[in-house]
Structures
1.
Amino acid sequence: MNYSIIIPTLNEEKYLDRTLGRLNRMLQLVDHEIIVVDAGSTDRTLDIANAYGVKILPSLKKCRATQLNLGAKHASGDVLYFLHADVLPNVDCIKKIEQAITNGKYAGCFSYQFDSPRLLLKINSRATRTDSLLCGGGDQTLFIKRSLFEEMGGFNEKFVIMEDFELTQRLRKKNAFTVIPHDVIVSARKYDKNSYIRVQLANLIIFTMFKMGIAPKKMAHYYGVLLR
């Protein structure tokens, strides 16, 4: 199998270098390409991407679902691996993905831990090690066979927020989704900017709105009001 790693960006100079550096080291023996889909960064994001020699695609729309679909459209890999710029993949993630696909799980995500020693965040992380309706967010990364991604119609671009949960919800109905208990490292920057309670409240409200079928643009508006 060959892999296309797709990273959506918008002003990610603080995190992109460490992520691309990790990928560069761990993928030396893997047939792969890295695609950065940028939605108009004004910082050094593109300079960093260019320094690593990755494929760069400009996105006219600042929407993660649109960026991810654009990356997939131009990808050549048999397996797509969607990764946020501030998430460090586990060094064994490719091996774990291959094992999952061999076992008939053609899509899935990883558990995570935060790059923070705070106890509450460690407790949060433990909850991501088992498959549940609360799992499947973009921070957990997402791998999927290209053929299955195309069969599913990709990400629903109406979802300007929760696009990851919407796709994984559809994948679960096909019994094609799994959660691999092998941690990626997620930035705690959301918690650094906001209180723990505020972030948890925002997540609960948005997830509830999602389950109720509230319009994605309305969800995105409230999320922007709740968090800095």
Note: The chain has ten helices and eight strands.
2.
Amino acid sequence: MFKKLLLPIIIVFVCIQVLDGLFHGVILSGLYQQSAAIWRPKADMDRMMWIIYLSTFLQTIGFVYIYYKLINEKSPFRGLWFGLTFGFTVGVGMGYSTYAMLPMPYALAFSWFIGCIIIYGIAGLVLGLIMKEKKA
């Protein structure tokens, strides 16, 4: 089973990393600059990036495994739907729970929420394209 999941895990992880980089590094860069006072210094964040990579990798393993075990009809549509649902769940925690704890702009919390839905929706679509049903 691990061999069957390894390639989808790697592909989805790379997909999420690229989308996260575009989302956080480009689209939200202005909001991060506006709220710079609440974030760690850049040197600290750079030194601890491994934590983000590791947590994203572990989350990707869970994402792919749940799809593999619980989604019976594997297809691009089912992958998209699964990704949107997963993204909604992750986005609520990431966006709104963090908003409740940090003095961050609401626009950033909402962007994280919507971003999770979009990123995981795309990741789910990719997963649905690469992990298909066996032909009978």
Note: Helices lie at 2-27, 29-34, 42-47, 49-70, 76-101, 106-130.
3.
Amino acid sequence: MISLKDVNPNLLTAEYAVRGPIVIRAQELEKQGKKIIYCNIGNPQALKQKPLSYIRQVLSLLEYPELLKNDEQLKNYPCDIAEKAKKIYHQLPHGTGAYTQSAGIPFIRQAVAEFITKRDGIPADENHIILTDGASKGVQAAITTLLKNKKDGFMIPIPQYPLYSATIDLYGASKIGYYLDENNSWQLNEQILTESIEKAISAGINPVAICVINPGNPTGAVLSFENIVMIINFAKKYNLSIFADEVYQENVYVTNAAFHSFAKVMNKIGEKDITLFSFHSVSKGFTGECGHRGGYLEIRNIPNEVLAQFIKLQSISLCANVDGQLVTYLMVTPPKKGDESYDTYIKERDGILNDLKTKAQILGEGLNKISGMKSDMPQGAMYAFVKFELPHTADITSMTPEEQLAYETQRDCDYCLAMLEETGICVVPGSGFGQKPGTLHFRTTFLPPKDEIEELVVKLKKFHEGYVEKLKV
């Protein structure tokens, strides 16, 4: 029988805090009858967001195409839905249960290219688009392709979504962390980037790519046009590829911010030498179809022989799941004005986005009224990265940096676990995403229903004040 000593050491090193021990404890408490408010993960439909009728209606017809042959049954569907399902069915002769082309179904790749062109006003090549099982598989494919040895380094933000740190650890590469500028709405700072990469280079690491999440996870920040230009110029200076994680591009809630894709900005400034990997997903935005695991990877400025290696890599897994590909198609080809399903689609879309905006405001305003707690008002995405203060229970002046890190990690984990036990609120410690030494954070979503977000703020205030008082004793 194998034991831990027989397990890949890279797997033992990899951590994924979003579904870590606090979540496991939350599930145990839930089984015992305790009400849990799950704010640990961006999983909209698990938190009562309803699926879009448009997507589920089309899928129902494609999963059981006998309905397409029954005129009486089709009367239950809007006309444009029935016609769209028929059109897809004829372009998918083997149905949803058969493998597709490795890079994805051709008409869907073409639709993604047209979506990008319409979004950004720039050309997009369907041959440079690969359909993936969510954005995560696209990220992992890009890391796999660029990784030559353990000294190859990937610049990742601190804080960051732990997909990046876990995957880099799992594949045996090197992490180059760069701190986001918390005092400047979590934008990227050129001086910090330069210090991070120069330190890595001096340590013998070979930087190959910089990863950027926009809008931000876990910060909820939306990068400005100027900030993106700076990042592109930085990448060019150091000969880095860019990973643009843009899965929250529909989730922008403030009027003084807007989503700018890296592809559009690169085109505007005439940059054609940097390889760009852009990732999008059906899991976020207002679609929220996490379980269907659909998404795409677009690659710009890449030689055909390198692109062929990406296709080969995808072929090793045969293809992305077909339902996920179809949901991706439906995401990029919504109903048009005049379609029978259009009004319902717009009502559902706007209802979801407006609800998220309202909940972001409730959460942001409520948290900032709690003494010893601070959070930027979430500009986008689905999260707030909340800074909180606690009295020290040990003398940190005598600690080594490693001891201080362990001490602070234990403190935010203990805090979040105590919060869960007392209030039923399940969040993720900031140490699971990375944070500046000497600071404490936790990440929370604002996906639960409005009444639960309001309840969360009230419970959190009472808990935090009580926890601080106990530490003072």
Note: The first helix runs from residue 9 to 13.
4.
Amino acid sequence: MMNTTTRSAKYPHQAGLSLIELMIALALGLVLTLGVVQIFLGSSKTYRLTDGLALIQENMRFALGNLQYNARMAGHMGCLVGPPENQLDENDSAYDEAIYDINQGAVRGWEASGTGLGSTFTITSLAPSGTWSNGSGDGLPTSITGDIIVGTDVLMIKSGSEADVVLNGNPNGNGNTLGVVDNSNIPQGSILVVVAGDCGVGDLFQTTNALSGTLTKGAGTPGNKTGGADFKGDYDDDGSVFLFASTTYYIGVGASGQPALFRERLDAGDSSGAIELVEGVENMQVLYGVANNIDANPRADTYSPASAVTNWNQVVSVRIALLMRAGDNIIDEPAANTYNLIGTQITTQSDRRARLMGSATVAIRNRLE
């Protein structure tokens, strides 16, 4: 007898998915996938924007901090009361009063054409070009001509940093040489300021000898005065020596092709050239606090652009504004925006870069005594 088997009703045939059920499942999966992608893209965009703004803020703090510190120390020569005696050769072709003469102000600047107070400047190019001027008629230093982005101001600061030198054996003024303990380690050609121990007198000169146990002034570039131009002070062992620096700050094109804040020493004591400090600095505007009667009241009466400053000895403070931009396009839609940089309206190019503006006002300590 043939046995026949039948599938129990307890284990029915697997029916599978119908086409409609499969399409619904695919549609739901697609919706969920699109939602996840949208969340990811939104989070990524937020992260890029937040990260870009954080980088701009960090660069802003560094740039303004650097400018603030150096502007605050403009004219610093230790305890020296008043400017030092200028022993440099003013007739030498390499001598530039704007660079070397502390008697004519510890800060100096140049205003970009069309960017004064109340002006409106539209950025159409980041190429190094344009014209600059100041109220005292100084020409822009030749070493930075052709490096500055159009529409951005230039700031120069003259100051000194104390050298690790101990004077020795100079009880009386000497026409050419100052003795020091051991080798000075000061490079030949450096511009120096020597200050007497009683802080009453100082001399600005160029050391023209190589590393040795003396600091000698003589012929050089620009060199020193000749014909009986002795040191004006008696620099005994309590005196001090400062390395003089005349430094400009300007906006140029950085290594990455982005606008950047540059620093460049212009005095003969340094040959390092332009140094890029911070990228992403698109514009800089500078105003100068001028005291009308600095002897009676060393406080700023007005803030003026460089083109209106005729006497740099009256400048007691500096107001600086920077416009920073991100390196990447992180904004949804391109736009040209206008920013007020301490009285100058700066309109940017139309792009998708995030930007921030920052400013600081710095009192020049040496001018407030």
Note: The mean pLDDT is 87.
